[in-house]
Amino acid sequence: MIFSFPLVLWLIPLAFFPLFLTEGSTHFYSWNALVPKDNLSKIITIFLKCVATLILLAIIIGLSGPHSIQRKIEKTGIGAQIGLVLDRSASMDDSFASNDQTKTSNNQTKIGEMKSAAAARLISDFVRSRKNDMIGIVTFSNSAMYVLPLTDNKNAIISAVRATAGNALFQTNIGSGLTSGTELFKKVPDSGSRAIILLSDGGGRIDAATQEKIKDWFDRFKISLYWIVLRQPGGISIFNSFKLQDGEALPPQIELNEFFKTLNSPFKAYEAEDPKTLQKAIEDINQKEKKSIKYFEKIPGQDFSTHCFVTATILMLALLILKLIMVRSWL
Prior knowledge:
Elements (H helix, E strand, L loop, with lengths): L1 E2 L35 H25 L2 E2 L3 E9 L1 E7 L14 E2 L5 E2 L4 H15 L4 E7 L3 E8 L2 H10 L10 H9 L11 E7 L7 H13 L3 E7 L21 H10 L5 E6 L2 H14 L2 E9 L5 H20 L7
Parallel strand pairs: 4-7, 4-9, 9-10, 10-11
Antiparallel strand pairs: 1-2, 3-12, 5-6, 7-8
Helix pairs in contact: 1-8, 2-3, 2-7, 4-5
């Protein structure tokens, strides 16, 4: 048992004060021999003092906030440890070019929805559908920013996802986002299934040193990678072959896709041109990441303050009743 306010326990010695009180009487006798011995009254008096002491002890202990320690129970469920690495470059605030109308889960029509807003909405639905996941969030533009460590708190995750749809910068530093995303798993025991969902609307070049770090960390922490590319219609597709002219470099998204293919970890890429195709990509990931995992369910500690106060109340009522039925002096 632990106490929320342990300093209150220093008042415990005061609880024994009733034991040292002497009996008082308003009657005077000329000869003590006239007063009969009343051992029963003495026993009752001692009993009442003990009850008063217990009342004070119960109140003091209750005020100290006693409770048991939070426990963790290991369970087996279906889910994964997932790191969301979300692009927050300025282009994510552009609307999807498609004129298609989409329906949300609340039957609301979305026309010309921003990429970041559609991503936040669909990822929130994804989080709600996952029961045993631990999810962490990292965003990136010119650099990475930690938003939320791996947690199973659904309300915190959804709030963090919605918060990512804010103002953004113009650069796309995917390398920083991925390295920061892998660090989410550093101090968390492996549950049996780990994945990073990278969502961006383009590619970015990653230097050789960062590429080696990403390869090493993905392999060491056994992380799968899902890359969702929000592509503009008519733009370059990462799935099409690309012929280079002399001295020409690969487009960033093609180069990035080729690098991801060299990872020892499982990798799958998706392209989304509108909210519908984005939703299909997220639903496919949802189906793939339903594996048996081990996770810990937190059992909150039990609060004993109420028990103490109820005990003190019952004892006070008992003391009051005894006081009312006490036999007055017959002299």
